[in-house]
Design goal:
Radius of gyration: 16 Å
Shape: globular
Order of helices and strands: EEHHEEEEHEHEEEH
Distance between the termini: 29 Å
Bound molecules: iron/sulfur cluster
Largest sheet: 4 strands, antiparallel
Length: 158
């Protein structure tokens, strides 16, 4: 599914459906890989020729996914890889997915391009709410720019 520009999104909130943890590969940065190897073991990671991923179970789900009848949780909550923290948002320097005018977002002195993956069930399309524009999106930007110390809007807490 084509990523949609932020200005077409009314709101976003994680409802803990777990879809993103069952169907997508998670690429690890080297320090993330090292931390997982130290704390859990190398068997929780899966190298390829040029990337390292979190290992997935035979059904495709992440090995850290915890599921109850009502909700899905991340077992890596406090060491969640950046790729997971950013999902379903894409914070880019260029308008990689088109619609540059609708994707442009001015953050401090920077012009960024923000898209959202519509496969996330927590997304609602429409006119953006103030909370979405001024609270949710900036938090994702801060995560992308490594300036966010704690997540408030962007994760479900165990
Ligand atoms: S981020 Fe989206 S797809 Fe992933 S668990 Fe939350 S609502 Fe579901
Ligand atoms: S590390 Fe957590 S958030 Fe990321 S895919 Fe695994 S269970 Fe989901």
């Amino acid at each position: 599914m084509q990523a949609v520009p932020w200005s077409q999104v009314r709101s976003w909130r994680c409802n803990m459906c777990g879809i993103c943890c069952r169907h997508y590969d998670v690429v690890l940065k080297f320090p993330e890989w090292l931390s997982i190897v130290k704390n859990f073991g190398i068997e929780y990671t899966a190298p390829s020729l040029d990337k390292i991923f979190l290992r997935r179970r035979s059904d495709g789900s992440c090995t850290f996914l915890l599921e109850t009848p009502k909700a899905s949780f991340c077992g890596l909550q406090h060491a969640k890889p950046k790729a997971c923290k950013l999902w379903p948002f894409k914070v880019l320097n260029r308008p990689k997915f088109g619609n540059p005018n609708k994707a442009a977002y001015h953050y401090r002195d920077r012009k960024l391009f923000i898209y959202v993956d519509p496969a996330c069930t927590g997304l609602r399309l429409g006119e953006p709410t103030r909370e979405f524009v001024y609270s949710v999106i900036p938090e994702f930007i801060e995560i992308a720019l490594n300036s966010c110390r704690r997540q408030f809007k962007t994760t479900a807490v165990l």
